[in-house]
Design goal:
Elements: H1 3-25, H2 30-45, H3 51-61, H4 65-89, H5 92-119, H6 122-125, H7 137-167, H8 172-201, H9 208-253, H10 255-264, H11 277-282, H12 284-316, H13 324-339, H14 361-377
Helix pairs in contact: 1-2, 1-9, 2-4, 4-5, 4-7, 5-7, 7-8, 8-9, 9-12, 10-12, 10-14, 12-13, 13-14
């Protein structure tokens, strides 16, 4: 297996696993199901193009079987790709009707290609496109029919992809542009191969580098297409991972402040989930829940301790605002005053709040982190 084939296999089957997982989660999603079947067909065709796969299949069923199965799977790939765009552009009833009509040329091409392979002499079936004798009727019909359908279906998919890419926002637009570039390469490669097939059918000669170049263009377009399909999902997943990592760090960074406040106000602890604690520690939802819970508990604790904190800070410095650093210097003494049973000297006051006009949760969390770090730095 070449390096290019290995990269293609990794991208293809990785994408298949990812889309399969999404289909299991949403089995009624027609768009997702069509994309899964598209990638599944592409993945199914891959082994039939490898030398080991060709030897195994042809040895079991006869010469040319691997080539026929590979091409039928590729036809299925572009058919389901068309189904994806049909479902994207039409209401459910119209989409079902159009999908059925699109199945007609697909089925006709599959039957013609199969019949052409059946009438082709055995000695001609195992040849590749570069070495096949196009003057043999069965060989020519096989390549012309499959190539014509591929060019038609890919051109239609390219039209819809370009149209959607203009309307979409990132990262979907970026993924669609990658898909459009891949489809353009596939259409060009299919058109070139059709022309070369006709030329060879008429007895003309074609330089071998031209055939190799068309195949290379197709080989490069396939992984680019798969990468474009999964790109939006990967970007979204990467953003989720970064958010998961950030929330985990914040949860850990707030530990000193939370522990001090929780010891004084254990009744403020929010309800925790009882089941699945081990998995909850690592699951994204579990990390997010603990993050928000800790932020809320820290802020609730500061509200309750703020009257004592304001008194301690005013006693030390009447002009000192309750910034995170000032609050950290007096938090321990304020907690001791609360623990001694003293009545609250005043109502709650703001502690370590963001500046005016910046009331977002992120800004609030940054103030809490500053307070927690300042509290840690004292020891």
């Amino acid at each position: 297996m070449t390096v290019l084939s290995l990269v293609l296999a990794v991208v293809l089957y990785g994408s298949l696993l990812w889309t399969g997982r999404q289909v299991v989660r949403g089995p009624s999603d027609r768009l997702l199901r069509a994309m899964f079947l598209c990638i599944f067909s592409a993945g199914l065709s891959f082994p039939f193009g490898l030398p080991a796969g060709i030897r195994l299949v042809d040895g079991m069923t006869g010469d040319g079987a691997a080539k026929l199965l590979q091409n039928l799977c590729l036809l299925g790939t572009v058919y389901f790709l068309g189904c994806f765009f049909i479902h994207s552009a039409s209401d459910p009833d119209a989409a079902r009707t159009r999908v059925r009509w699109q199945a007609v040329p697909f089925a006709a091409t599959a039957l013609i290609a199969s019949a052409a392979m059946a009438v082709t002499p055995h000695v001609e079936r195992s040849h590749t496109y570069a070495t096949a004798d196009m003057r043999v009727p069965g060989v020519a019909v096989f390549y012309l029919s499959a190539g014509a359908y591929l060019a038609y279906a890919l051109a239609a998919a390219l039209f819809w992809t370009v149209r959607y890419a203009r309307l979409a926002s990132r990262p979907l637009a970026t993924g669609l542009r990658m898909v459009a570039a891949a489809l353009a390469g596939m259409v060009l490669a299919s058109a070139v191969r059709e022309c070369l097939t006709l030329l060879r059918l008429l007895g003309g000669g074609v330089p071998h580098p031209v055939i190799t170049g068309a195949k290379l263009l197709l080989d490069l377009a396939i992984p680019l297409f798969v990468a474009g399909v999964v790109y939006p999902g990967l970007v979204t997943r990467w953003a989720s991972i970064r958010l998961w990592w950030h929330h985990g760090r914040v949860h850990h960074g707030l530990a000193p402040l939370w522990e001090a406040l929780h010891q004084a106000f254990p009744e403020d602890a929010l309800e925790r989930t009882a089941g699945g604690r081990r998995w909850d520690v690592l699951s994204p939802r579990g990390v997010h829940r603990r993050y928000y819970r800790r932020v809320i508990e820290c802020r609730d604790g500061l509200v309750r301790i703020s009257p004592y904190l304001a008194l301690e800070a005013a006693t030390a410095d009447a002009e000192a605002p309750l910034t995170p650093e000032v609050a950290a210097r007096h938090l321990r003494s304020a907690l001791r005053a609360y623990a001694s049973g003293e009545d609250a000297p005043s109502q709650a006051v703001p502690v370590a709040l963001p500046g005016e006009g910046d009331g977002s949760l992120k800004s609030d969390v940054r103030q809490l982190i500053r307070l927690s770090e300042a509290l840690t730095a004292q020891f």
